[in-house]
Each structure stands twice: as structure tokens, then as C-alpha cells.
Amino acid sequence: MATVIGIFLLLAAVVIANIVHLIWPVVPLAIYQIVAGVILAVIPDLKTFQLEPEIFMLLIIAPLMFNDGQNTSSKKLARSFSRTMSMAVYLALVTVIILGLGLHLFLPQSFSLPIAFMLAAIITPTDAVAVKSLTTNVEMPGNVNLTLEHESLFNDASGIVLFSLAETTLISGKFSLANGIWTFVYVFFGGIIFGTIVGTLLIRLRTALLARHVDIAAIVIPINIMTPLLIYYLAEELHLSGILAVVAAGIMHSILYDRLHLTSTKVQIATTTIWNIISEALNGLVFVFLGLSLPMVINHIKQLQTLKIIGIAVILYVVMTGLRYLWSRFGLVDLHSRTLKQNPRRDSLLLAIGGIHGTITMAMAFSIPILATANRVAMRNALILIAAFVILISLLVGTVAFPRLLPKKQASFSRTEFQKAMTATVQFAITELTNTEDQNREKSLVIDQLASQMTMRSRLNTEVYNKLLQKCHQVELNTLEELVDDDVITPQQERAYALLMVRDVFNHSNHGFWDLFSIIYQRLHWLRVRHKMHRLAEKHPEIQQRHLQRFKNFNDEMSSTLRIIIRRINKYLNEVQTTQNAFEVAAVRRTYLNRYRFASRRDQLDADQMTSYFIDAFQSEHSYIQQQAAAGKMSSELANALNEQVSTDQLVYMQSLN
User: Fold this and answer.
1) What pTM was estimated for this model as a whole?
2) pLDDT for the residue numbered 243
3) CB count, 10 Å around CB of 598?
4) Packing angle between helix 265-298 and helix 217-237, nearest 10 degrees?
5) Sign of CA dihedral 518, 519, 525, 526
6) C-alpha to C-alpha distance for 95 and 81, rounded to whole angstroms
7) What DSSP letter does each residue of 424-455 carry, written as one string?
8) pLDDT-based confidence at 262, cuts 50/70/90?
9) Average confidence score pLDDT of the chain
10) CB-based contacts of 239: which residues, under 8 Å, 6+ apart?
11) CA-based nearest residue to 155, from 121, 178, 183, 181
12) What pLDDT digit, counting tens, does each position of 44-54 carry?
């Protein structure tokens, strides 16, 4: 139970950190999540909270790496294979060798050779997700960004394999070069082959299911989510790299998505949405867990030792960053940069600083108590703390450096512009619907739902709303007078409608305490009268039938009057609506449409008619966007974003029909 509560609190911290970052996005999200974890450490029950390293790798790291793999373009990965191998394998090996030998030579009493190599392997893997969190608002060159993404897919496995070799050497006290090379090749390439085979079999299972049935999301999506767990577990049981196995399986799934295209749209959209949520939650958990662990580890280390550890972490980070820079400057990795001739140093520096550490480093650091006992690794807490400080330093350096080295992203449109354009688009669709003569409950419901798209995006200006409502009441009164003069309705129907209008005005007015009390009293009185009428109808069915017929006739007459008046109201609102009062106009429309829905609530809804209205509305929205883009009043990027939003709304509606 304590573990469940601990995980719940970690997830709550992730959500709170996300909210704070949404309000104040100046600081990277990872920093907020680490701070949230540090704050959680104050809770007594969480001071000793720990996740088993095997569970951490299986339930958190494996799904993350699988998702990274299935979001990777197989074509781009194939074209950059040599570049990826250079960064993920060759550079990783060189980094571990140099750092391991350096630590042992300069601090032989603190770092034996196996422990030095173990620490070097821990801090070598990079985290592309952390890089993305730091470069959200800047323009990262595509060649550098792609290199960092592909590197992080495979150098995690390099680090884990080298870490395992160092751990085996520490326990046995012996190291065989030939055995080490064989183990590396077997674990590394064996994981890739195993993941490719199992991933292909699971893909064939999914495609077979989709071929025989249509969009069986309840079966296909759970298979997709369980895939990394199954592959990682089986690969580890075979002593292969579980990380590389899930990455390879993920890449095979990316090929599946390229082939599926629109053959299974519902499954693809649902799968993408679910994996985005899972990925963001798991990444947040890693950084919150890092923040939670920092106070626990620091408490076991003396202040002087902490300062020494920080110094070691800074030196290790500087050496790793320097190696990455020189690796690029000496041409050991070909960035294929279009700007390489113009500014090669900048690309190399970005590649160096982009080697930010995160999830895998933390996972391996906390694996030390399991992979090697605390007696054999006396510096367990120190190693964890060094790894944590390396992560923090890499994040802080990236936070400071990227905004100074890279230009800000220049979006072709702002969020406000998008919302304004979307409002105008919905306005156009509503206007097209209200311009037709037919008025029924189905159209009222469609217009109501379209109008809700606008009213949800902004706060209502009550002053503008009340003025519009007063003008509409005047339109009602004028229309009633015309209908009576033209003998369309009787004076009795006019009085009945006037009473309905007065009640509606009263309901939308500000009430004091006694007014509210009067409303409650009238409602209770009506319920008591209706109860008496039901009892009387049970004794005299003919009276009930007569009352029902009279009510039906009255309701039909009222609905007919309402249809005429609402057409006049819509005509007036179409004349006065602007982009400034769009939300208030939509709210007024909803007021009258709700009145009409109340009067015609006994009518049976025509689902086909509603679908037809919705399709007409979506087509009107697409037509409006196309017209504005063709006239040069809207950029192509904004038009694409609006069309995507309208298409998504249309897809959601069509799915709701099921």
C-alpha cells in the first residue's frame, strides 16, 4: 500500500509541475519536476521510498525507449546509420575508457578501475527528451537535433552493456578483453536482432487482426502497450539488451505506421494519444524521483564530501562535453549540415551541449545496490550523487546556453491569432446554418454545440451580453406585434408567449435573496400542483387525455411562434456580430435555442438530420478557411492548423455516432 501511495504522490507532483510550467514556462519542465521531487522528500513516509531497479527499468524505461523507437523515421535512421554508430557506439566507448582511466589515475584510492568504469558507463547515456524540453522555444538545427535523437536511442544500451561488464569485473575481480568484446557484441547486436524478430511477429499479429476486423482498438492498443514490457522481459531473460530490443521493436512499429496510413485511422489516433500521455507521465516520474532521491542521498554524505562530489561531477561533465565537441570538430561524426561551412563551431558546440543526461543515467545509478552489493560498492551514495549532479549540471548548462546560441522560434501565428481565426470560422458556419429558412430542434442542437466551441475559449462579457439580450427582447416584442397584426397568432398566444419571455428575462437577471426565495417557492408550488394533476388523472383518465391534447396543441402553437421569432433573432444577430462580440452573440443564440429546445422537448430527434447539419457546418468551415487563405488574409501555416482542428472535430463527431 505504501508503494501505491508513493507512486500516486509522484504522479501528483508531475501534474503540479506541469501546471506550474504551463503558467510560467521560463524554466524548463524537467527543473520544475526535480524541484517537486525535492519538496516531496519532506513527507516522512516518502523519505525511504524506493523503486526496485528492475521494476524501474521494466515499467518506466522500457516503455519510454519503445515509444522513442516507434516515433523514429526508419528512413532517416537508415540514412544516418554511420553517424548514429559513431555517436552511440564509438564515442560512448571512447568516453567510458577516457573517463574510467582518468578517474582511476587521479583518484586511485576512491575509484578502483571497475568502479571508475562503472561510473563512466552510468553518466555516458544521453536523453533526447530532456533536450526537447530545453529547446521548445528555440530553433535547433535539424541535423543536430536528428543526430541527438538517434544517438539517445542506442547509446543507452552501450552504457548499460558497459555498466554490466564493469559490475561483473567488480564481483569476479577478473576482466577478459576477448570475453568483454564477445559479451558486448552478443548483448548489443543480439538485443537488436531479438527485438526486430519479436516486433515483426507482433506487427503481423496486429495487421492480421486489422485485416479481419475493422478498428478493433480494444485488442490492438493493449497489445501495443504491453509490447515493450514483454520484449524487455524476454530479452533480459536471454541476457540480451532489453533496451535495444524494445528500441528495435519500436522502429519496426514505426514502419507499420508508415504502411497503415489511413487504413486504421481510429486506432492510430488513439494509440498516438495514449502513448503521448504515457511518455509525458513516465518522463515526469523519472525527474520527480530524481528530486525525491537527492535529499535522501545527501543526508548520508558529509558536507565536505558533498563539495568534493560536486567538483568531480563538474570535471566529468566538462570532459564529456569537450570530447563531444572534439569528436565533431575532427570530423569523426559527419553532421551533414547545410550550415557547416558557415558556422561549423556552433553546430559542434550544440552537439556537445546537447548531450544532456536523464532517465537511463538515473536508472543505472539506482541499479547499483542490486547489481553489486553495498559492501562491494562502498561509494554507492557517492556514485548516485555524482550521477545526479551530472544530470543537473547538463540541464542547467543547456537551459542557459541554448537561448543564447539559438534564435527564438518564429511562429507564423500566435495562440491568440489561432483562437480569433477559429472563432471567425465557427461564426461563418453558424451564419450559413441560420441563413436557411428551416428551423427545427436538430439544427438548434447543432448550432448550440458549434457555439460552445467559441464560448469555451473566452470569458463572457456580461455587459455586452445583457445589451444584446435587451435588443433581442425588443426584436421579440416587435415580431409578436407583427404576428398579431397579420393574424398569424391570436392575442391569447401572444400573451402566453409574453409570459414565457418575461420568465426568461427574469431567469437571466440578477436576483436578490427574496427573488431567489420566490423562484424556489414557485418551483415547489408547481411540483405540488403537478402531483395533484397526476392523482386526478389516475381517477379520471378522460380528463388527463383532454389536458394532454390541450397541452400538445398549445406546445405546437408555441413552437411555431418560436420558430418565426428565432429566425428574426438570428437575422438580427448575423447583422450585429463581429469578431469582438462573437462569444456574447454565441451565448445569446444558445439562450434562445435552449428556449426552443424546451418547447419542443417532446419531439423525437432525427439523428440523420443532425448529421447532415454537422457535415454542412464542417464543409462551411473548410470553405471559409480556403477562402481566407486564397485571399491572402490567412497564412498557409494558420490555414493548415485550422483545417487540422476542424478535421479532428469532424472525426471525433463521426466516431461519436458509433
Assistant:
1) 0.71
2) 87
3) 12
4) 40
5) positive
6) 20
7) HHHHHHHHHHHTSS---HHHHHHHHHHHHHHH
8) very low
9) 79
10) 186, 187
11) 121
12) 777 667 777 77
